[in-house]
Amino acid sequence: MIVVGAGHGFKFSSVVGEILADLVTDNRSKQNIQPFALSRFGSGDTYLGGKLNEQSSNS
């Protein structure tokens, strides 16, 4: 895995390492990674202010 970015991303490296290690060893993470799921792009759901805002299909 190669990650390119500015220095501000460095502070997240320890938790990213923990998440990747959990996913490799246990196939799940102790951290809540749901806001980063690829399926979020097709679902219409948004993640704002620490809360998942689900879009209803009636809109």
Summarize the SSE layout with pairings.
Blueprint: H1 13-26, H2 40-43, E1 46-48, E2 51-53
Antiparallel strand pairs: 1-2
How would you explain this protein's 3D organization?
- InterPro entries: FAD/NAD-bd_sf.
- It comes from Paenibacillus donghaensis.
- This is FAD dependent oxidoreductase domain-containing protein.
- This protein is an alpha+beta fold.
- The protein has one domain.
- Helix content is 31%, strand content 10%.
- The protein has helices at 13-26, 40-43; strands at 46-48, 51-53.
- It has a two-stranded antiparallel ribbon with strand order 1-2.
- β1 (46-48) and β2 (51-53) form a beta hairpin.
- The longest helix is centred in the N-terminal third of the chain and has 14 residues, at 13-26.
Number of helices: 2
Largest sheet: 2 strands, antiparallel
Summarize the amount of helix as a percent range.
25-40%
The assigned structural class equals: alpha+beta
Task: Indicate how many domains the architecture comprises.
Answer: 1
Beta-sheet strand percentage? 5-15%
H/E element string? Answer: HHEE
Radius of gyration: 14 Å
Average pLDDT level: 76
Q: Low-confidence parts lasting 5 or more residues at pLDDT below 50?
A: none
Biggest sheet, strands in spatial order? 1-2
Q: Any idea what the shape is?
A: globular
Question: How many β-strand stretches?
Answer: 2
Q: What is the end-to-end distance?
A: 39 Å
